[in-house]
Design brief:
Layout: H1 4-18, E1 28-36, H2 44-63, E2 81-89, E3 94-101, E4 108-109, E5 122-133, E6 135-149, E7 152-166, E8 173-176, E9 187-188, H3 198-204, E10 212-216, E11 224-232, E12 241-248, E13 260-267, E14 271-281, E15 288-290, H4 292-302, E16 305-306, E17 313-315, H5 317-321, E18 326-330, E19 333-337, E20 359-361, E21 363-365, E22 376-378, H6 380-383, E23 386-391, E24 396-401
Parallel strand pairs: 3-8, 4-7, 14-22, 15-21
Antiparallel strand pairs: 1-2, 1-11, 2-3, 2-6, 5-6, 5-9, 6-7, 10-11, 10-23, 12-24, 13-14, 13-18, 15-22, 16-17, 17-20, 18-19, 23-24
Bound molecules: 2-acetamido-2-deoxy-beta-D-glucopyranose (3 copies).
GO molecular function, one term: aspartic-type endopeptidase activity
Protein name: Aspartic protease
Active site: 101, 282
Length: 410
Amino acid sequence: MFPTAFLTSLVLALTVAANPVLIPRSSVTLPLSRRVNVTSIHNLVRHDVTRAKALKARGLAKANGFSIDAVINEQVDNQAVTYIASVGVGSPATTFSLLIDTGSSNTWVGATQPFVRTSTSVQTSNRVSVTYGSGSFSGTEFTDQVTIAPGLVIPNQSIGVASRSQGFEGVDGILGIGPVDLTLGTLSPATSSLIPTVTDNLFSRGIITANEIGISFEPTTTVESLNGELTWGGTDSSKFTGSIGFSPITSTSPANEFWGINQSIRYGTSTTILASTAGIVDTGTTLVLIATDGFNRYVRATGAVNDATTGLLRLTSAQFANLQSLFFTTNGVAFELTANAQLWPRSLNTAIGGTAGSIYLIVADLGSPSGEGFDFVDGFAFLERFYSVFDTTNKRVGFATTPFTHATTN
Ligand SMILES: *[C@@H]1O[C@H](CO)[C@@H](O)[C@H](O)[C@H]1NC(C)=O
Ligand SMILES: *[C@@H]1O[C@H](CO)[C@@H](O)[C@H](O)[C@H]1NC(C)=O
Ligand SMILES: *[C@@H]1O[C@H](CO)[C@@H](O)[C@H](O)[C@H]1NC(C)=O
């Protein structure tokens, strides 16, 4: 005979085996692959500016209680640089390649790879639609089992299933990790309830112990590489150096609807590009966008000219030799974007229609003046040089230096 205690633990072990998953962990890490689409010429600036306009309009509408499905009639450009996570939906799961987006909060699938209904899929009575500026989708809201990593499953995640989408060739949808308020107004018939994000569900189910995301993107000069990482519920200290400098979410509208912060930007030792002003941190933007007056100061300081073919700023090699760092100061901590970090990777010049030997810059014109509460966008070009932390619980954004902050990869 076995002692009762043994039997009890055997039964427990069997019970656990029969109901796998849901082991609480302090954090969960999801690998991200960075992909550069070189099969067609991209207009990076147009894509990013269109997106920024749409985000700003959406933020303003939301702050003023208007309908937030901002209509922006601009050309749709697919993103050239994307970070993709593989996420499973259903049981058995269909795997989807989803864009990681801190500027929106709906998670949806089906843009390219069709959604497959399984026994875990529950269709709701809601339609869903989101406009991203350079792209949009609409479809039906489901709840389904979402598998983020092996053994890490959300049994009941609300997700959109696209019946129509544009601007998303090559990816299947979006993993929205922005503030949950951005889901308001995306369902019809209109409902006042928010759609809990993947992060919210991981947290409310106790799967992660902090409502926080840490993101590592790394610069690369190759077309596709598995070099990014998203950590839910904490940060990965192997991906950054020193400590994380946090800034509270700005109180300035409309940046405060997003992962918005106050920041000032300085060129070299003393040229102010933007005095302290509000803007956002965004993984759906490739470049660093600065309000027109600040952008013009940067152009004067660097001597750059506009390159008509790519839409980016261009420097001569003599000007590049003199290029100073840009300092992004937020909550008293300065983050240095080196001269090399201000370059578009030269090995990818031709992918954006540029000339192989030219020197293009990743700073672009936001297309509106400063003082409008949405005066900069820190996109990939910034986030590939600093680890970033999006902390819902404490309403703050953090940055830390990485081994790539001062690297000369471009
Ligand atoms: C599943 O999620 C939906 C929407 O988030 C919610 O209305 C419903 O109550 C949830 N069901 C269960 C069993 O948790
Ligand atoms: C690249 O972009 C083109 C046109 O925008 C699109 O047709 C193609 O599917 C994209 N490829 C990938 C891998 O994203
Ligand atoms: C950000 O800047 C605005 C405008 O100057 C100011 O009112 C606010 O206190 C600053 N800090 C935060 C966290 O919003």
